[in-house]
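Why do we care about 3D structure at all? Because function follows from shape, and shape follows, mostly, from sequence. That is the central idea of this module. The next example makes it concrete: a single protein chain, its amino acid sequence, and then its structure expressed as tokens.
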Amino acid sequence: MVKFRICQWIDREDFEKLVEIADYLGRIDKCSLFSIKTHILENPTLLEKTLDFLEELDAEIDEQEIVKLEKIRDEYRKIILEKSRVGYLLRSKILLNEYLGEFRSRGCVKYSRSLRAFIVKPYCVLEVIERLKLEDFYIQDNSYMIEVKQHTLDLDLRENISLRDYQVEALEAWKKNMYRGVIALPTGSGKTLIGIAAIAELKQPTLIIVYTKEQINEWLEKIRNFTRNAYRYIGLFYSEKKQISNITISTYQSAFRYMDLLYDKFKLLIVDEVHHLPADKFRYIAMRSLAPFRMGLSATPYREDGRHVDLFNLMGGLVYEKGFNELRKQGFVAPYEIIPIYIKLDKDEELKYRSLKKKLSTLAKGRKVEELVKAAQVGDRSAIEALRVINEMRKIAALSKNKLTKLEEILNSELRASSKVLVFTQFVAHAEELGRKLGIPVLTGKTIKSKRKLILDLFKNGRYKAIIFTTVGDEGIDIPDANVGIIVSSTSSRRQFIQRLGRLLRPQPGKIAKLYILATRGTPEERILRKMLYYLSSQGLDKF
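And the structure:
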């Protein structure tokens, strides 16, 4: 109970307002004595309005009542933040519904009767805390997770390492967004360095998520090369290696499987190739990790299924983006040329293709591929056979004799010019067949780690001049001096195309990258290529 006195006459209107916020206790020394109602004391906003109103009425409050009032104000302004296995918990002496309505409607805050607290999902905890602070609440951080002033890691960038202008801009945009957000920059633009600079900035325990095992080694090498004292802090968490340290590097798969072990160990979460994160199982990493500070890195964050909206929500939005052309003008990526080449089927291939196309029309009965896949999953025999026919047609287009002839012609010409060439195809069997016919090493998802490393090392030091890749080469592999790419077969994915182009664009003196795209006429390859060229033209990416 907080008491006050009013010793002068007040009009009826003010008296009616007064009895809504205070209980009348009687007269003493020619003054009216009141006490502030409990529900007012329990609501910081109403209490502040009440005190302003009492000041207008020249109410008198004794010193001991002021002390009591300040204690109550402090107690009801305090919100305790705790961490738990279900997320962050907010505990307070007052109901927070009116302050958390926006977040409850977004689905990232809910009240738990059993815990008698609000559960806040980790990816929005900083926004929630910021909102409550704006309402003049005091946050008592018993989670010890959102404090950034106390440095845990003695880690700085080496003196000889400096960020490019756009890298500085990206880092500053991330910092201004409460150390959260996705940074979108082309392959070869130094996204890893931005991530390492973020670790050096925060100096907090960090979990780095990468897509491939090769990327683990790249991050490990770059952290050691770009920072001081890194050897004291790094742990690798994948396959048989399960070392948790202040800077832990893990793959998506390992982090997903062991998130119950990793979830509360880190304040900063860095996700490389972050466009993979919205996948049904990988999103669990971001949902479960208590890391309030987050950075996503990708050359292509936008997803054709629209799930980049979920990605931005989980990581704090898109905070910085620059494309190939912007960086090319500044000399940070190599100039490039895109060369489309259309190939004809030979007579036998064309006859077989037409026959299969006619058969597909009968089997599909107007259904799209997505519909055929769903039907096949429930045992529809005609759909199963239709998908087999589609696969045969794709193989004819991808493996056409004229395409192989043209590939050899381009390859021989580029190798005579001392180019270093990456050949991309979709099919493992196709890659292996090309490798045998052309005498070129092949990297697929089945290639064992030691052999993969050997092939890449020999390519980097010039012993190999060309490599054939399946989709394993689309991302997560660092090949800085490749200058020519040949796409023999692909999907319609824009992301895949941009990733493949990006493999060629690390700048070197005098370098002009070339990307040849081979497409078989009269097949979906032709339509996909024309559609891709139209997209590139609309984005200003078709010319160097």
